[in-house]
Model the fold of this input.
Amino acid sequence: MLDFSFTEEQEYFRKMLKDFAKEELLPNYTKWDREGITPKHLWKKLGELGVNGLRIPVEYGGSGADCVTTGVAAEEIGRGDFNLTYAVMLNSLIGEIINNHASEEIKNDWLPEIASGNKIVGIAITEPDAGTDAGGIKSSAERDGDVFVLNGEKSGISVAVAADAFLVFAKTDPAKGNRGISAFIVPSDLPGVECKAYEDMGNIPIGRGSVYLNDVEVPEEYLIGLKNKGFSQVMNGFDLSRLLIGLQCTGAAMQSLDETIEHVKNRESFGSPLATYQGVSFPIVTHYSKLEMLKWQAYRGLWLRDQGLKHSKESSSVKWLGPLYSQEAIHDCLLLNGHYAYTKEMPLEQRLRDVIGLEIGDGTAQANQMVIAKEIIGKEYRSYKTPVTK
Ligand SMILES: Cc1cc2nc3c(=O)[nH]c(=O)nc-3n(C[C@H](O)[C@H](O)[C@H](O)COP(=O)(O)OP(=O)(O)OC[C@H]3O[C@@H](n4cnc5c(N)ncnc54)[C@H](O)[C@@H]3O)c2cc1C
Done:
């Protein structure tokens, strides 16, 4: 059986979020960018709407929804406020990781708070000398009695200045490379944690920045998953976040296309609406076609995840093409709206800046292409492993 339909419940959820995005998010999308603030009240509002807890079980305050439903939220929120989709993506990713790998105490402490939107948790892997090569991180977590002592610098971290805690990756056994990395939940108010914001070109309300760890003591119960298994256990979550990112971007780009279609129907040049010129309609059609294909690949990946089937290459394809197709679509929408779209009166310039961020965040195009190459060509041909000998 091949069935592309959403359930009645999913359609209801989509309609509710579509209305919310149109009425409450879209009119204020540019406001948070211009004012440079993280609208924490909207993270709470998403909690009330059941969006933050989609991947959190009912007993911890969530709804235990499937991944496809989570994708619906990413797409629809993306139409209203691209930056708020970080809540959908981070809360799903971190909610899943904590639920699957943390102790009961940590689950009880953090999951209901994430689901309600009362607390924001970021994920801290990247470092000044290790991004794509995440196994090359240098932050350390050394055991000292019943605590781990964390030291290091995390860079480029989303919600760095807004988060109440971070899921921090650090080396517990530096000699073992990838196999010596562990994950910890680190509350941002612990002594020794310091966060500094960047001046980014986009995603301003996300407040990206660096997180410094100076002799931060965390109890051993804050270890998420098994010691030295941070990579193999926790990294699986990125197959989810990458699919959601594809849909976040698609939502923002589809909204831009809708706005542009309205514009080209109403604006005239040489006595006819712009929409009558194929030089105008064909770029719109091209982007619509690419985004539709991308969207269905994303839902297919989410469906595979729901079935417990492999979906890494699907996820990586959506991650590298989603932000790319979306920024190309938004760029053309900006041009089709003429010079007003180059001003800050319209949201298009911001959408373009915002979406470009996720061409890098959560893995660049090349990082994701490496994942796909490993699967379809073979892991013995990985460039970052032992060179291939014939
Ligand atoms: C908006 C945004 C949000 C982010 N949020 C977070 C977050 O919440 N948490 C977090 O931990 N990090 C976050 N990051 C950091 C992000 O994950 C890294 O920037 C990303 O993984 C790339 O690492 P890098 O910047 O060090 O680039 P590098 O790894 O130095 O790569 C630079 C360039 O070289 C290419 N490259 C590298 N190695 C290879 C190779 N072997 N083959 C081919 N090309 C290669 C890359 O694709 C890239 O184009 C965020 C970044 C952005 C922009």
